[in-house]
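Hi W.,

Here's what went into the run:
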Amino acid sequence: MSKINACFCYPFVKPKEPSNLVLFCEAHDSIPEAEARDYLSRCRQYAKTYHVYLTAGPFIIQNRLCLCLLDPDGHPLAIQKATYLNLLHHAALDPADRIQVIKTELGSLSLLPGVDVFHPEVSRAAVLQGAEVLLSVAFLDAYDLNPIRSMSGCWAAAQANQVPVLGVSNVDCCVAAPCSLTNNSSGFILAPQTAFPALATVYPHKTNRLREEESLPARLNPAFIDRYRAQLSL
Amino acid sequence: MSIKLTLASYKLAGKLEKLDSILSGLNIKRSTLLDYVYPNNVKIAAVHMKLAPCPDLRSLVQTCSSLVDNAVRSGAHVVLFPHLFGLLPLCAHKGAAAIVQKMAADLRAGNVSRARFSLVMDKFSDFVFDCYYTLFLRLAQRYNIYIAAGSTYVSTPKGIRCRSYLFSPDHTDAFFQDKLHLTPTETKLGIQAGDEMHILDLKIGRAALLAGMDAAFCECYKVARGLGAQIVLSPSSLREENSYTARYNASLIAAQQYSLYTARASFVSSEVSGASGVYAPQLLTRNLDGIIVHTNEAGEESQVLCARIDPPKLIDNVDVYASSTNPDFSQVLASEIYPAYLRSLAPEDK
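Here's what came out:
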């Protein structure tokens, strides 16, 4: 039965105990390609030093916006390229065509770089392939900050797919989960907050049990999906 | 794409005349708004309905007429009613009330069998459907307004369907949309899901009807958008699907994700919560919150929320976070991931 002690902190700051997963609050929309190698090297050292899983990024490699998941020994488990891109900041980059599911001792994780969290198909694809927890790292321009932005990202992904979503951006962090598993049916284990570091505990087995009892994705209509494959392919 | 519907063949001797007679006694003022529609100035009304039984036909007609009248006076081109609104005539049928109350209690306890549900449907569905269909067809014609009259259960040659109707003053048959995704209870009762989405080409724009649980699926919105919908009308059920808090709901979220105007109408009471409103992409709303009008409060009376939308403006809505496309990813999702997942759910062939 896994337990995620997630710590959201500024880059390379010592994580709060007893964290086993760290997400950095990066100030910029991405680490440029020229600095990516050094950045990842530091991230690997950090993960090894504090013995934590670390979501590093976003950074640019080979014209793609990426997130990397490192294990507590500093080894990269996966690099996830963004499938959708911010039209203002990353329009010239190449998108990926797949989302990965990474099996770890914390559970099956998927990474959502950049604006992927605002596209419901990405989190849906991850969960249909077995993801139990989603990790989102986004960048928001100051003038785009508003509650509906948070709700239509992490919160909506958590409700639609019945999984916890750990989200961090350049300004805030949150942990969203199905409303029935949160205080006051708010849909947040950790409400959006701008104070760092922040700690939150997530039990993936609880949402797994919820999905076993009444799975929303399992209610998908196969005949409808098959009939409108063309529209779903747009 | 409008679909012709054949009216139920069962005739209620005397009852429809009574309905017409009650309607004739009302002071119905015909709206002229649909005579010419300015595309940038469309108004949608959503009924936030206090859940209360109508003890007889007259009360039912007066309640519905009053709400439509309210929408017309607010300048609406279309008025949306909640999910399963079409079952309300059961209250007006003297023989049905006690039976339905018992069945509702048993449903909540999980004690209703498919056979018993079919029996009740056989006994009362014609009356319920005739009342509901005829009433709203007449109201749409007399008031000259589109009425998305919620939904009801209908017996069809393909089985019992949960069907939403939109009544137009220009047509003698209603547009309809079968519910695409069923709740566990509906599945248990043998209700059949539809598999086709109809986009309604109305004078106010192109609209889709997503009732109940359908509004919780991103796939429905994506298909609606892909088929050209600008407006999604969601008759909403008694409780928020997915335990969404009443403040935020699937219609509001979907308007942001798919660049659509959405509207939602719910029942509300001291025991059940629901949210109603009209929503838009946040960049098209005054407070950048995606809300044009909204309520989730259980007041003393039903409310009719009316709001102006501008469907042609959706083309100019570019949200840098949500507007990018990736056909390659969508293709993988549609051709590989969905089929693999749905195959994993299918019972094994023996």
